[in-house]
């Protein structure tokens, strides 16, 4: 994977040299196509495996008692999730623009997240503050929704037992600011520099693609994502989107 320093070097090269720009463009396009093809080719047989497991379970419910059955189902689900996130990551920069009410989008996300917490009987208190002066925003609504949900899911996963999550938005002259604050486990100094890199995960069952995809999407909108965190006290993620 390319690090920021390499991406900066690559950007300088493409600005200075039109041949380099063309070759790097072709290489990137090729790389995207290969990742898409691999994800697609693995997903097809995997979907068949997943359907066969479901049919087997319906026809022979006793298999649920077999050793390793539950683990096998979970492993197949995990690979499906990984492939979906990999495809989303691969297409992170491709934006489908529309004009939409950011207030409505954020309120819908807050409501569905609150419902998902209620259905889990969790000890997490969730609150939000989405003012009505946010106005319209031009961007990729589906991808931005994915970003905000990623932050909320990470916040939920950071809390073990009781805790709070606060989701808020505000508008200044040039920016929309969206924040997700939690009272969870926090992030140590050793890992905080790596959490936005792809495949860096520090939790069981994580894919490590949520934040790297979110960063890609936010930066494709010309914005930024940052984090402030204290171990055992919690974290606050801030997204700034230019208007
Ligand atoms: N709100 C948070 N609180 C504590 N740690 C977090 C939070 N959000 C992200 N992280 C850390 O960043 C890592 C990368 O997050 P992410 O890219 O979403 O991947 P994943 O959730 O699959 O691990 C997580 O494994 C976790 O260690
Ligand atoms: Mg995540």
What does this structure look like?
InterPro entries: HATPase_C_sf (IPR036890), HATPase_dom (IPR003594), His_kinase_dom (IPR005467), HisK_dim/P_dom (IPR003661), HisK_dim/P_sf (IPR036097), Sig_transdc_His_kin-like_C (IPR004358). This is histidine kinase. It catalyses: ATP + protein L-histidine = ADP + protein N-phospho-L-histidine. Keywords: ATP-binding, Kinase, Nucleotide-binding, Phosphoprotein, Transferase, Two-component regulatory system. Its EC number is 2.7.13.3. By secondary structure, the protein is an alpha+beta fold. The protein has 2 domains: 4-90; 98-242, Histidine kinase-like ATPase, C-terminal domain (Heat Shock Protein 90, 2-Layer Sandwich), CATH 3.30.565.10. Helix content is 53%, strand content 19%. It has helices spanning 4-16, 18-59, 69-90, 102-119, 141-158, 189-192, 210-220, and strands at residues 98-101, 124-129, 136-139, 163-171, 175-182, 224-230, 234-242. The strands form 2 sheets. It has a 5-stranded mixed β-sheet, with helices on one face. The protein has a two-stranded antiparallel sheet with strand order 1-3. A hairpin with a 3-residue loop joins strand 6 (224-230) and strand 7. The longest helix has 42 residues, at 18-59. It is globular and about 65 Å long. The two termini are 31 Å apart. The model has no long low-confidence stretch (mean pLDDT 93). The structure holds adenosine-5'-diphosphate and magnesium ion. Adenosine-5'-diphosphate binds at residues 150, 154-155, 158, 182, 184-187, 195, 200-203, 206-212, 235.
């Amino acid at each position: 994977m390319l690090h920021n320093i390499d991406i900066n070097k690559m950007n300088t090269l493409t600005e200075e040299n039109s041949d380099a720009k063309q070759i790097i463009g072709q290489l990137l396009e090729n790389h995207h196509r290969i990742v898409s093809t691999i994800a697609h080719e693995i997903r097809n047989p995997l979907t068949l495996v997943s359907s066969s497991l479901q049919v087997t379970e319906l026809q022979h419910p006793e298999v649920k008692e077999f050793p390793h059955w539950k683990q096998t189902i979970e492993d197949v689900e995990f690979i499906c999730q990984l492939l979906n996130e990999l495809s989303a990551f691969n297409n992170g920069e491709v934006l489908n623009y529309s004009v939409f009410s950011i207030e409505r989008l954020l309120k819908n996300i807050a409501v569905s997240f609150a419902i998902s917490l209620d259905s889990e009987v969790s000890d997490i208190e969730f609150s939000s503050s989405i003012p009505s002066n946010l106005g319209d925003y031009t961007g990729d609504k589906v991808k931005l929704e994915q970003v905000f949900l990623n932050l909320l899911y990470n916040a939920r996963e950071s809390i073990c037992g009781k805790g709070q999550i606060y989701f808020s938005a505000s508008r200044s002259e040039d920016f929309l600011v969206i924040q997700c604050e939690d009272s969870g486990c926090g992030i140590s100094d050793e890992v905080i520099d790596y959490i936005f890199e792809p495949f860096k995960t520090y939790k069981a069952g994580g894919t490590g693609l949520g934040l790297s995809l979110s960063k890609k999407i936010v930066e494709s909108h010309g914005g930024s994502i940052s984090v402030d965190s204290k171990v055992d006290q919690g974290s606050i993620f801030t997204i700034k989107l230019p208007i």
